[in-house]
Amino acid sequence: MDLRFTPEEIAWRDEVRTFINENLPPEIRERMRLGYAPTKQETITWQRILNKKGWACPGWPAEFGGAAWTPIQRMIFTEENQAAPAPELNGFNITMLGPVLAHFGTPEQKAYFLPRAANLDDWWCQGFSEPGAGSDLASLKTAAKREGDFYIVNGQKIWTSTAHHADWIFALVRTDPNARKKQEGISFLLIDMKTPGITVRPIISIDGSHHLNEVFFDDVKVPVHQRIYEENRGWDVAKYLLGNERTGIARLGKSRANLNFAMDVARNVRAGGAPLIEDPGFRQRVAQLQVDIKALELTQMRVIAAASKKSDGKPDPFSSILKVKGTELLQATSELVMDTGGPMAMPIWASELNALGNEPIAPEWAGYMAAPYLMLRAASIYGGTNEIQRNILNKAVLRL
Amino acid sequence: MDLRFTPEEIAWRDEVRTFINENLPPEIRERMRLGYAPTKQETITWQRILNKKGWACPGWPAEFGGAAWTPIQRMIFTEENQAAPAPELNGFNITMLGPVLAHFGTPEQKAYFLPRAANLDDWWCQGFSEPGAGSDLASLKTAAKREGDFYIVNGQKIWTSTAHHADWIFALVRTDPNARKKQEGISFLLIDMKTPGITVRPIISIDGSHHLNEVFFDDVKVPVHQRIYEENRGWDVAKYLLGNERTGIARLGKSRANLNFAMDVARNVRAGGAPLIEDPGFRQRVAQLQVDIKALELTQMRVIAAASKKSDGKPDPFSSILKVKGTELLQATSELVMDTGGPMAMPIWASELNALGNEPIAPEWAGYMAAPYLMLRAASIYGGTNEIQRNILNKAVLRL
Amino acid sequence: MDFDLTDDQKLLTDSVSKLLADRYTFEARKGFQKQPEGWSADMWNQFAEMGLLGLPFDEAYGGFGGGAVDVMLVMEQFGKALVLEPYLATVVLAGTALRLAGSEAQKSAILPEIVGGALKMAFAHGEQSARYDLSDVQSTARRSGDGWVLEGAKSVVLHGGSADKLVVSARTAGERNDRDGITLFLVDGDAKGVGRRSYQLRDGTRAAEVTLSAVQVGADAVLGGVGDAYPVISRVVEAGISALAAEVVGGMDKMLDVTLEYLRTRQQFGKAIGENQVLQHKAADMLMSLEQGRSMSMLAAMMVDEPDAAERERNIAMAKVGVGQAGKFVSQNAVQLHGGIGMTEEYVIGHYFRRAMMFDHSFGDTAYYLGKLAAQVQ
Amino acid sequence: MDFDLTDDQKLLTDSVSKLLADRYTFEARKGFQKQPEGWSADMWNQFAEMGLLGLPFDEAYGGFGGGAVDVMLVMEQFGKALVLEPYLATVVLAGTALRLAGSEAQKSAILPEIVGGALKMAFAHGEQSARYDLSDVQSTARRSGDGWVLEGAKSVVLHGGSADKLVVSARTAGERNDRDGITLFLVDGDAKGVGRRSYQLRDGTRAAEVTLSAVQVGADAVLGGVGDAYPVISRVVEAGISALAAEVVGGMDKMLDVTLEYLRTRQQFGKAIGENQVLQHKAADMLMSLEQGRSMSMLAAMMVDEPDAAERERNIAMAKVGVGQAGKFVSQNAVQLHGGIGMTEEYVIGHYFRRAMMFDHSFGDTAYYLGKLAAQVQ
Q1: Residue of C nearest to B264 (CA)
Q2: ipTM computed for the complex
Q3: Staple C327 to which of A169, A292, B48, C248, CB 3.0 to 4.6 Å?
Q4: Is residue A240 part of a domain?
């Protein structure tokens, strides 16, 4: 047992770090360091740079561009990318749809969609959640009625991240309303967002950002060949996808980037006549977060090491620990960032000021300090709430 | 609205404080300041001093020695007594049995038992819990079978505090095993601990103290006239008693005494070359506890003020807040005491050392620093676990 | 000790509550927020008519002669409705400065205008590099003839953009962070040399960056003694903390109500999610936190007029920590128990959430006051 | 990165686990505790026979040549069984001091005796007024002829009462709290002038107050360089932390198991209490805490032999905090979920609880190491 990185792993980390340093456009990096979410175009730009390097879809089969990295290499890449900070790979394309297509897709589906997904030629979004369903995903109601070579889709999805950016959506729809169990009447469809009958309505989040949407389907015609896997077996596909979704959920690189940003600012703002970073309470808080990050770092390595040994394809229930503890850290570190900003974190500096020209109104670091905190309250909700994760742990490990 | 004490209340606090200062034997006070639990004799000594003053049973009707204090006067007395620190009044006698006797007792029962209870001539204990029951108190099984003018009691009680000190026990027993609801077949008996057939078996707690017991009843003959209230109506008596039990549960005076003791020691031990009390982490912890104590102090006053307005006799569900937050503070402050002691808090100094004579082996403050922490883990368990308190709040206030 | 409200106080609470229930619905508020100044002039007039704008002022100036407890009662109602109007800025902050430091002439001239609703004010004290240090004033005022010339910049001035008059602090002597040498001035919002850039805060209320470039004011603009403003500033902030704390308590009250209603009605896996024991206990924790916060808000109100400065500062600091922590706990869990809907701008919970967040970052946050209390441990 | 155990390590773990399952039941342990020295000489011999007492020592001294990970594996098993024997004191603490600072002669004379089970040792470093400061040494040693004379007192010396030999720290130069000027000495437990008063710690293990009154030792009693002991002491403590952390992880593992079993079987209100969702989630929190603690224990084991001192100290400090907090959380909740039975001496949970408490107060508590880490933030 040796928990240190091997020389090969250190070399890999250095290779990744060097590549990011040399190829990530500095303006993207700086905006992200200050807490801004990357724009659509920034995400596309960076993913295409990575794709050119062959690093955009490492987890896919080699024939579709996969890189045959070890799990630890993938972890190192993900965290270096988050900590840079650089835009993360479009998860809908890379961790969700890609593996599903590679596993369940027809040769035609694979050949057409996979390269386009890797290069972000198509921006994908996910149509799973519905207004009435919430954590009870399988109770979804959006109906797909077979008519010849088409499904006619009617219904509504909600919480659809980046639907307003998306070219395509992969959606769960109900193809058999009379199935014995609600999980058994569901199919998995790929739908072109330009198809007539689709309406996207924005949902503005509490940080003021437009990230989420409602998507309405009104007699939307979807060719049957855009179904993945068998009719009424979409739940199997979804389960496979959700298992993959849980890798990388700790997002430790992001928490580290938050902590670094807070410490940077704390060196430069005063509290009680001295730099904030010398304040005992601030230091205690940083120290505790460093401990918590270190612990999760090691736990994550253990989960990854275990994953690389097993091959049953089932998600490790311990990844629920990564989800809960990882999101707690995202929330705690973004809260530290906001608190570091103090009163300067509260204004929406951008609003109504653009009209006044480019004269800076506040220090650069203050631009976007509360928004990540606000947005990351969702981290313990999406992808299965942290309460659901505890249910999973109970069911799979504790068995009470 | 004025949350400050009135001049009358301040005068009362001073009167109580002065009386305690002048009458509490210093050796009792000093041992308690160091964390030791009072001995049986210490408790008796102090209660008799208070009884002589007319302060032992303020909540009772005037004819039995009650003092007609306002609720706020009672609170002040309780907290001054705890913070002194002085032995608390024997709760079984004063807050539990006394009001029950005064409310439900026959004239003969009142005349005989009340004065003796006030003066601790009889030490009472409570026989409610049973091994199989736990939080589900009403599922008790100890049977009392009527035979002429006697009940024949058979069964077992557990967690019986100070049963080994007790002269009498008040116990819930099942007099009708066939009652429709389990609450309806229960009676409330007073039992002389010297009655043949009673066996007390000690339960040693994790702090090494003998406080709890099992009490076994083997064909114990109890005269019918020692039953309180009607046969099979004992649950009404118990509910009345448990309602009274919840006053004073915040035990803030005790938490304050803990905090003061920790700060005293912290002024006298060194950490990193300076007094521990100057350590930033220690100070933050003290400051947070001061805030929490202050908040609960005010919440307690609000509950008391509300109680003095209502007369339905039902316990205020908000007293569950006092229980939960009060026990959290007891636990946190006793943990601070232990941590202040550091490595010196870990030895059981007394053990095996008495044989070596009276030469001191450790500073006086170090004698008993971990035991209260250990013992007070029970504070969130007894009197309805803190989980049960949340259920009560839900049922009575939130209604989910 | 006495928790009773007077009949006047009950009447006050009821009438504010009724007004807001009728006129300040969440929908109506959206409209108010879109007004040019970010709030409703009409509601402001309503507040004036009800006498709220004169609540803490002497009857001699047309006021109601009320105290901090009355302000607390109103602010608690304001908190439930997420009131946007500049009550804190005008009546509590600037009003307290005037009450404590104003000359008879200043009070006679200004307070009746406030009471009547004609004059909005703001308290322009904080600066970009001061964080929460009240003595960190770098703006300056130098004598010029009979009057003064002000230079500098003030940051995150609540309702600074719409204020007719500003109470501005400036250094007339001493070094940065000296408590001595700070002076308060009354400055017209549209005086020459005053620049104002207005924006929204994260909770939807308004604030402004204010610049002062050779702003000339007369000798009669000095509020209180020259160089003596620090204790006044300190008490203005204490009054602000007390008022805002009550507002957050009102908000927490509402958050718990809304959350309970959601837990009762939202169905998942075939039952109301409120049937989950874990969510019941979380709601119980929210209730406990709310009640502890309410206690601390009462403490703050009671302490605002405490003459013993050390006692007052210490208790207000404790109240700030207590309400701040309660507000954070209740609001974070209100969002969490709602799930996705709690994260949206169109739903009410997120607005309360951000208001509680704003409180924690106003006048010094939890860490700041806990640090202050910690430094006093000895 | 590699989490695999070697075949030898698997064998080691299995055989220790099996021995303890067979021979170190909770009932058997009660008997061991009643032995005069508070543990079982018979079990000690078993450990010797299995080679456990030689685990970290070179084969040249009859040892196994193992590392901190091997010790971790053994300690984890010891933690599950609440082993009472002086393994930490003899093999880990004194053993590390000998390994790092012992002369060839000292090692050849002593280590084989330890390995064989004949010699028990203790590390007599802490003093009553030192708290957790490793440099706060007031006991002294002055030269006397060829040798030295020791004066002073050592406090809470683990297994100091039963040790055949003590490793004693004393100041040979410098002032209290100076890192320079501390020297280690090998002192026979029954040497003239050594007073020992033995007692139980709260977790049932043994320790002693040791007094040194004109204790004479020869020049060959010096362990390592004169005045140079601080770095050795520091590393002894690090090895102790790593070993104890593993023990606590074993204890947490057991606490969770016992608690789950209790939740499954204990009936209340007509169902197993484990059906309460609140208790399920609390158990899930315990699991998460345990696994985070396990990770930190692995970190400590990996870092014990890290040559970069700053890196080593920093990571060990983080591990101490992480395992300490996990141990506290898991053990407090294990008691709480048990209710009354968890508070009793006769039930197993309280013993694990106190062992975790003991860990937090050994070699510096959570607050101490968090404070150290905080002081490094810059």
Answers
A1: C378
A2: 0.95
A3: C248
A4: no
